[in-house]
Design goal:
The chain has about 170 residues and is mainly α. The chain is built from eight helices and no strands. Helix 1 packs across helix 7 and helix 7 packs antiparallel against helix 8. The protein is globular.
Length: about 170
């Protein structure tokens, strides 16, 4: 049970950073609508900020991982800390959205985040169909999803604010 519980906690940590992004992405796309096609519009700037906000979320995730490893950054400590290192590495791949070539394709950030959103869908389906997952797990998933949604909302807001500030400075 110990390894299963630790793996569950790691999964919740990763979901807390990345699972809310698909909802943010969908909301921005709906709000932007056809206005996103016009270059220089606020809607276009909002859509363009999505991958950078996702990269900022991944950077915050990296910060949490480094904080958890402090003060021993040895390979032995790193391998002992993580139950499922591949999922964490996949989460860190979101930092590739800092690269302008990749950030020009916001759909890639959505596809990446859907992997983490899948865990919520999986738990809901298991709860509905087999009842093998208790109500507490679903409640945890919904709390984590709400926190992730708020975190991703903040990162989009921060990136959008920086984008607008930089655009204003460039005009002067």
């Amino acid at each position: 049970m110990g390894d299963d519980f630790l793996a569950y906690i790691e999964r919740l940590q990763i979901m807390a950073f990345f699972a809310g992004y698909p909802l943010i992405y969908a909301l921005v796309q709906v709000l932007a609508g056809r206005q996103a096609c016009k270059s220089g519009s606020f809607a276009n700037r909002l859509v363009q900020s999505l991958p950078y906000a996702y990269a900022l979320t991944a950077t915050l995730f990296l910060g949490m991982l480094l904080r958890d490893l402090y003060p021993d950054y040895s390979m032995k400590n790193i391998s002992g800390q993580f139950q499922d290192p591949w999922l964490r590495v996949f989460g860190l791949l979101a930092m590739l959205n800092w690269i302008p070539f990749i950030s020009q394709k916001p759909l890639l950030s959505l596809l990446h985040s859907l992997v983490f959103f899948f865990f919520i869908i999986q738990d809901l389906l298991l709860h509905i169909t087999t009842s093998s997952i208790g109500k507490e797990v679903i409640q945890n998933d919904m709390r984590i999803f709400t926190d992730s949604f708020l975190l991703n909302t903040v990162t989009v807001t921060v990136i959008l604010a920086f984008s607008l500030i930089i655009a204003r400075i460039r005009k002067r």
